[in-house]
Amino acid sequence: MIPEASYDVIVVGAGPAGSTAAMYAAKKGASVLLLDKKREIGSPIQCAGFLPDASEVQALIREARLPDTLKNYPDSCVLQRIDTQRIVTPNCNTKEFAVRGTVLDRRRYDQFLAEQAAKTGAELMIKTRVTKIEGTTVETSGVFGKHRIKAKAIIGADGPNSLVAKSKGLALKPESRETSVALEYQVRNVDIDPSSLEMYFGKDFVPGGYAWIFPEGQDRANVGIGIRSGMAEKGVSAKEYLHRFMRDHPLAGPKLKNCIIMNVIAGIIPVNGAPERTSTENTLIVGDAAGHVFATNGGGIPPAMIAGKVAGETAAEFTFGMCRLEDYDRRWRAQFGPTLETSVQARKLMDGIMKSDTLMNAAFKLISPEHMKVMQCGKLPGPVKIGLQALNRGKK
Questions:
Q1: Residues near 115 by Cβ (< 8 Å), separated by ≥ 6?
Q2: From CA 192, how far away is CA 395, in angstroms rounded?
Q3: Architecture of domain 6-76+105-173+272-344
Q4: Fewer CB under 10 Å: which end of the chain, C or N?
């Protein structure tokens, strides 16, 4: 494919955020070029892929206007339907609550989203890396050659180490940047509850985060950990923590003892919210590039796609002289900004508590299953906040 010399909107990155942005910009009549550096959309996989049902997302983020593709997608994208989420405390007590959702085949889902963008009118170029951005001119290199392409607006959906964000001064400063390292295995031959998500806590297995078992079918699962390197034991790698969890955890170990590892997945998850600005006069950032991740559980698909819709619509309106591109900041924050900020507050309250299994057990004892559920989407109920603050004061 040979691109045109210019487009109204260039979107960098064809994950859920970028493909959603491209689709909604094209829907509004803008000419759109969607670029992705991968050889195949959705591969390698970047996350465990749990997607709450749209009704669950809407109930918890009432102001959000959900993209159609967050509500409706083919059954071929679904690995497993989920009806329960189970929390396992350090002392192996469990709490659970009902939750509707799916574990996605991320490769197929990401390809579905990119296909919808293309069907709407966006042009798609894969195996194409952005090498430089000057103003609104994007330089690319890849399987289709080297090009200089002009845009009226650029949307950066290029992940936590976003070149677009860095080029435009939108990236979080290093001292404000907080990330979690995720390491996951897709495994077979496991003895699990196929309709339940399980999350495990405990500083000996997952310092500053949690481990999970997400079912991908009757005897298949995604098993992984998300840990904060600054809270880990010195000299202990994420791989060692994951193997320790799979081998030694009293509840998880027996379920996984005969597992066969089929795939290794690794990534970085931003957990400190969005930067002060996510737009300039000619550029927007969205998804992981903008910190659109709920810090309480690392969930990024719903906020990325909600913001992607806003980004695409705003960019298209901007190219037609209907708004300023900086309006994007106000628009996405009106839909889920407070929720995102609250999730960061909750994560910070839990940071100190997570250094002690005794404190973690006490924290989970005071949090009801109902409150656990709303905390997954960035809410922090008053009684929980007061209790966590008290536990933090008590540890000093």
A1: none
A2: 36
A3: 3-Layer(bba) Sandwich (3.50)
A4: C
Reference 311, options 157, 118, 134; nearest CA is 157
Q: How far apart are CA 16 and CA 18, in angstroms?
A: 6
Instruction: Render pLDDT for 76-99 as a digit per residue (tens, 0 to 9).
Output: 999 999 999 999 999 999 999 999
Q: Do 369 and 97 contact (CB within 8 A), yes or no?
A: yes
- Four-way CATH pick for 80-102+177-270: 3.40.50.1000, 3.20.20.70, 3.40.640.10, 3.30.9.10: 3.30.9.10
Q: Where in the chain is the domain with CATH 3.50.50.60?
A: 6-76+105-173+272-344
| Tens-digit pLDDT profile for residues 98-129 | 999 999 999 999 999 999 999 999 999 999 99
Whole-number CA gyration radius for the chain: 21
The owner of tokens 């290199």 is 141
Only one residue has tokens 């949690």, namely: 210
Q: Where would I find the beta strands (DSSP E) of the chain?
A: 6-12, 32-35, 50-52, 78-88, 94-104, 123-125, 128-134, 137-142, 145-156, 179-188, 196-200, 210-217, 220-227, 260-270, 283-285
Q: How many residues does the chain have?
A: 396
The C-alpha atoms of residue 98 and residue 232 are separated, in whole angstroms, by 32
- CA nearest neighbour of 337 among 324, 328, 347: 328
| Other Cβ atoms within 10 Å of 218 Cβ, number | 9
pTM above 0.70, yes or no: yes
What are the distances in angstroms from CA 112 to CA 42, 46, 200?
Answer: 10, 16, 31
Q: Are strands 137-142 and 128-134 parallel, antiparallel or unpaired?
A: antiparallel
